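I would love for you to help me understand the pair of lines that follows before we discuss the fold together.
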Amino acid sequence: MERTWPRLPEGMEALSRQVSALREALEQSEENTQGMVAALGSFDSRVSAIEASIRPAQVRTQAITMAHENIDRTIESAEAILAQFDIVRRAEAVILRGPHENLKNFLEAVDLLKGVVNFFSLDKNFKNCEGVLNQVNNLLTKSALKIEEEFRQLMGTYSKPIEPNLLFDCLLKHLMLSKGNSEAVGEQPSKSFEAAIHPTLIPSGILPLLHDIACQLVQDGNQKSCYRIYRDARRSALELSLRNLGIETLSKDDVERMQRVALQVNIGTWTQCMQITVKVLLAGERKICDQIFDGIAFNKDQCFAELAGGSVTTLLSFADTVARSKRSHENLFLMLEMYGVMHELQSEVEVIFQGKFCSEMKEAALNLTKSLAQVAQEILVDFEEAVVKDSSKINMQNGTVHPFTIEVIKYVKSLLDYQSTLQILFQQSETGSEAESQLAIVIMKIMQDLQNNLNGKSKQYKDSALSHIFLMNNLHYMVTSVRRSQAKDILGGDWIQRHRKIVQQNANQYKRVAWARVALVRQHHLMLAAVEFQGV
């Protein structure tokens, strides 16, 4: 018996139909999805098959591409290597010709060869390159020898002594410039005139060549050769220049045995040579040394000190020998001459001899200046004492001027010829006006000592009239000499007037004694006449 289900309401039936329809649609969708999946799986299989079929072709294409790249790189490397060989070939020809014809090309060739060495040394992939490296290194060795020889030849060719006439002419222009000689120099010296005060030690066109060669030598590690070649060449030229000026080495015995005139000539030569050496030669040597080794890692101060040392020592030792020789009053003016020159050069010495390697020469020059000042002061003191102690027995029978008076006055006049030098000398211990007053004190003391000495000499006369005539004549000589010389500015008008009175006093004393003697003689004659009259 078939079971009968209850009838659903009308709305629920509609919903049931929709559900059934949706179920059928889902089932249909699943069937479609499965079909699509199957189709896609079939497509993927076909794609995989295609990829599998073309993969060998892709591999071959990649291999061909890599092969082309390797070939390109190999070609580039080969071209680079061939280029290096071409550089070596071209550079070799330049190196073998040497630097004399074209220094710039030679130095460029050296730089190119160094580049070749770097090229093969930096890339370790290059094999069997020892041969070309050996060739290049041999060329670099040859280039170093050739550039060194070129430097030696240039230094030898252009390191010649300067002619004495040219050096004296340069010194004269230096002195004119320093004294501001407006007629000879003008208010503003021209560049041509300033250039004329420095002789050409090395032509200006050669200096850049020497600089470039020196730079190359130092880069090649040949500093010692560069140093030695330059020092020896310039030292020889400097010493020959001084020798041609007449500078010679003298011992203390040589100086003491030398006649005064010969010594004066030698010192005159020395003062000029000292000025020429410092103002002209050493100033020029320092300048070209700085120019040639500018910007180069090179001890140019030490090189300059060694090339100049021998000449400076010779000059200073001569003056030092004179200063240490036996002292005499006449040598005072030689000492003042040398001292004046050394003091004048002091500022230039400090500039030229700067740096630790030149400190010994600078110290020697400054010590010589001090030594000359000390000796000069000692001689001046000795002279003052000699004036006080002079006991010459020369008796001027007619009471005329004593030779000692003439000698002392001449000495004082000579002192005043060195007035500015003496004031500088006194400034070592005094200042400004004190130095000027010190000079005046020294001159006054000498004059007073002379006057005292003359008073003593006047007492040697038994005749008092002659004694007064002697003082009158000698003091009158002193006053007249002072009035007609620079001494009047030092001693002053009061000194002159005071000593004129002393001269007049002695004249009056002479008259008094002379008239007294006349009166005595007259009285004697009258007495004789009276005796004769009485006898008659």
Q: What stands out?
A: The CA atoms of residues 107 and 216 lie 8 Å apart. The radius of gyration is 54 Å.
